[in-house]
Amino acid sequence: PDLFPTLTFKIKRSKFVMLVFVSSKIVDKGAKEVRKFYVAFDLIYLTLIEF
């Protein structure tokens, strides 16, 4: 079976979901404002930079 090659990051306080693909592409779902995307990205940036 094929695998879905993503890291799924969910914020519990909102309906925001960020999908980080193996190809380094990032897709966000549920961010109504650009600012909210940047806040979520700042939360996981240090973890992502290791890879």
Automatic annotation (TrEMBL):
<protein>
    <submittedName>
        <fullName>Uncharacterized protein</fullName>
    </submittedName>
</protein>
<dbReference type="InterPro" id="IPR012295">
    <property type="entry name" value="TBP_dom_sf"/>
</dbReference>
<dbReference type="InterPro" id="IPR000814">
    <property type="entry name" value="TBP"/>
</dbReference>
<dbReference type="GO" id="GO:0006352">
    <property type="term" value="P:DNA-templated transcription initiation"/>
</dbReference>
<keyword id="KW-0804">Transcription</keyword>
<dbReference type="Pfam" id="PF00352">
    <property type="entry name" value="TBP"/>
</dbReference>
<dbReference type="GO" id="GO:0003677">
    <property type="term" value="F:DNA binding"/>
</dbReference>
<keyword id="KW-0238">DNA-binding</keyword>
<comment type="similarity">
    <text>Belongs to the TBP family.</text>
</comment>
